[in-house]
Amino acid sequence: MLRTLPRVQNGAGMAEVQLPPAPTTCDCQPMMNGSILVLCTGDVKIGDNNPLKFSQTFVLNPEGGSWVIGNTIFKLNYG
User: Fold this and answer.
1) 5-8: long-range contacts (C-beta < 8 A, 24 or more apart)?
2) Within 8-72, where are the H helices?
3) Count of CA atoms in the C-beta half-sphere (13 A) of 32
4) DSSP 3-state assignment of 13?
5) Which residues of 37-72 are buried (b: 16+ CB within 10 A; e: fewer)?
């Protein structure tokens, strides 16, 4: 099952962004305040186009026995 992200604008209009069930790489770094910095890379498919490379960086913050996502950056890597 693919996860669907918010729609993004392309030349022909709006298209759904779909990610594979797991990124290609995922690197984690603990932070001094108990949070975890996460960097994931992989391929993303937008509509019927060829997959593009992406990177996403975010912070997982502990809150009430679970984790919440804060400060996220999602970038398509063209080139």
Assistant:
1) 5/74, 8/46
2) none
3) 0
4) strand
5) ebebbbebbbeeeeeeebbbebbbbeeeeeeeeeee
pLDDT in tens, 13-63: 555 656 554 478 889 999 999 999 999 998 887 777 788 888 899 999 999
- 36 has which bridge partners? 30, 60
Beta-carbon contacts of residue 11 (< 8 Å; ≥ 6 apart): none
Report how far residue 16's alpha carbon sits from residue 52's, in angstroms, rounded to the nearest whole number. 13
**What predicted TM-score, i.e. pTM, was given to this entire model?**
0.68
Are 23 and 9 in contact by the 8 Å Cβ rule? The answer is: no
Q: How far apart are the first and last CA of the chain?
A: 28
